[in-house]
Amino acid sequence: MRRARPALPLPLLLLLLAGPLPGAAAPTDPADECQQQLPLARSAASWIVGGHEAPEGAWPWVVSLQVLRGGVRFTHLCGGVLLGRRAVLTAGHCVDGRTDPCAWRAVLGVHNLHKHGPHTARRRIRRITVHSQFRRDTFDNDVAVFELRSAVRYSLYIQPSCLPPGALLQGLENSSDCYISGWGRTAEKGKTSPVLKQAHVGILPPSLCNSSEGYAGLMNNRTLCAGAWAGGTDTCQGDSGGPLVCYHPDTDRFYLVGIASFGVGCGRPRYPGIYVRLSQYRTWIKTKLLQTNSTHSPGSTTLTLLLALALARAL
What we know:
13 strands
């Protein structure tokens, strides 16, 4: 026989009905963070391997994730994408063997990694969360979130990327008007670039990329293939975790559809870059953003404690 649950105390019941305490994080959709102002993003006459230098401020959500070397200086290791004032999305494999948040920092609003300007913000890392089902051998579930120690202030040079609404997904995931950006190698065995590079790419059909002539079944429905089947335009080492964004003319916005994950070489024919298909991780991303927001919101700790006490007494 089930025991009846006791009624909640009136003060707690009123608290729960009233909603979050003033200043507490509201459960918003990640897309609500997006506030795009891009006067420079499409100003380059020509459109990373096979790319060109990006106009300064063109991609304000791109983040340089850097690791501490020898205890004295930070060097760029992977790209990232700003999703909120305290949250950066990147590839899970970037964290492999480097799980200590104190060994990392995020640099935002930067164009030349050797010359931090007035628009640049540097943040240390509070917490790193890698997808619990990430597999290093297959790069499956290759996503992670870096929580910044302190919030960044948005500007023309620092903005969160837009996640696409569901109604636009199909068109964007088949788009030929997409862009990659990063500070990675400019050739398969070349050097990394100190300045941000960009390249124009198209998303290719899985039936082509995953064929026996290409990745031969290595792709799954949680990945996207983008670049050029003939080769020549691609992400490379140092670009992992960086954004794949596609332009939607009706809304005049760029939407984040993927992050750089893996590939065979860089820019090789029949082996375009493989990207995490972020539409498959929307719930995971939203959960991590809400956790990041609630960690730092005034009153959130008190509210969480009260809710826990209320549930404990109700069981």
